[in-house]
Amino acid sequence: MRAAMISLLTGLLALSTAPASHAADAAKLALVIGNARYPEFVLNDVANDAQDVTEELKRDGFVVDRQSNLTADAMRQVLDRFYARIERGAVALIFFDRFAIQSNRQTYLLPVDAQIWTEPDVARDGFSLDSILAEMNTRGAAIKIALIDASRRNPFERRFRRYSAGLAPAIAPSNSLVLYSAALGAVAASSKTEHGLFVAELLREMRAPNISAEQALTNTKNGVVAATKREQVPWLSSSLTTEFSFAGSVTQPPDNKIGDPTKPEPQKPEPQKPVCEAPQAEPPPSADDLARDPVIADLSRKIAANANDVASRYKRGQVYAIKRAYALAMQDFDVVIRRNPGDGEALNNRCWTRAATGDLQGALADCNLALQIDPGLSDALDSRGLVNLKLGRTAEAIKDYTDAIQRNPRSSSSLFGRGIATRKSGGDGATDITQAKSMNPDIAKEFAGYGVWECVP
User: What does the alpha-carbon distance between residue 453 and residue 430 come to, in Å, rounded to a whole number?
Assistant: First the structure.
């Protein structure tokens, strides 16, 4: 899973005409920039996102230079240092979090001391993403990756535009991957419940084993789209011709069933024994914690201004449930379902909330109704799997989780739940549990919050 840090053969440089090749052994370099402290704006979440991305890239074998709150001079020096480290055939990645502006059909990343009052100021004080990718290519990077979490309506733009222009398409060299957190020309409002969702989806997919980097970014995009009900649609551009995976090499099918008789048979690992593990669940938030949460405060203001704003109430219920404020979540979901008894998504959310609090029969009724309304709703299958698991109905839980996995193979919750249900029914389950943990290292702690542990009596 951790690739060796050595250079690719120089023959990989002829990417425009060469067939698909492998980059598992390439030197992997990353620059992570999180700009949180602009003079008039302090953004506390940026540092955490940048740190999480840095840690994941290091686990995946990247040599990472993490920087924060860069002025224009500092950003120029950091980029020059990054370019100088790029070897021929390397994988070079840049992650940028916070403000960027489109100008003259280019996207510019903004340092914390940018003075943007007019259109010409953007090119003067910003850093062109097109130029950054071109320089990475010129220095010899075989694969160029840009992950830009900057698709926001930013305060600089309001000074000289009546509308947000979002970000512009990147003019990237061949063998590049570029992912924006929102669609071209669109923005993702920070007051929405999907705040931080882009990075969360990105990290989960980067950890997923045995998929290409392009597929990981496609899954990230799809995950954000599904979670926001298409309110936020990331933009992905790929010209990748070289095989590369964040979490290790993509397994290739064998050329034949016989294999190479000159090579010794690989030894099969010993079956993994069940591990008795009961992690401490996160404590529920206090009333003060909830009162200080800016997303909850924003949604509460919208609901107070318009009691019929069902969308904001549904989103607030989701936030409460995620934060384990289950009683408050139930109140919001109850209102949404009274207004629209056929809302399968709201029924699923109430099912999951009831399952977490121990109201298993009520949860089962909600999940069954949600699946009558939408039989293909994978989230409801996952939720009903949890209900059946807590009821001790392991065969039914395994079936629900398996059906959910068929519809969404990237669900760490369904994989972990099926692994636990398999163990409780007398099987092994280790493969499902291991894969789920590789995708989401906190999944065991999450299930502990539902009262479900790996420890099987």
Answer: 14
| Distant-in-sequence, close-in-space partners of 311: CB < 8 Å, separation ≥ 6 | none
The tens digit of pLDDT for each residue in 322-361 reads 788 888 999 999 999 999 999 988 999 999 899 888 889 9
The answer, as to whether pTM is greater than 0.70, is no
Alpha helices in 228-359 (DSSP H): 287-292, 294-305, 310-322, 326-339, 344-357
Position 409 in a domain: yes
CA distance 229 to 315: 11
Clarify whether residues 35 and 162 are in a common domain: yes
Alpha carbon distance 178, 46 (integer Å): 20
Range from 193-197, 241-245, 257-261, 451-455 carrying the lowest mean pLDDT:
257-261
Name residues whose C-beta falls within 8 Å of residue 116's C-beta, 6 or more positions apart in sequence: 101, 110, 122, 125, 126, 156, 157, 159, 160
Residue 305 belongs to what domain range? 293-414
Q: What is the largest CA-CA distance in the chain?
A: 75
Query: What distance in Å separates the CA atoms of residue 304 and residue 91, rounded to the nearest whole number?
Result: 50
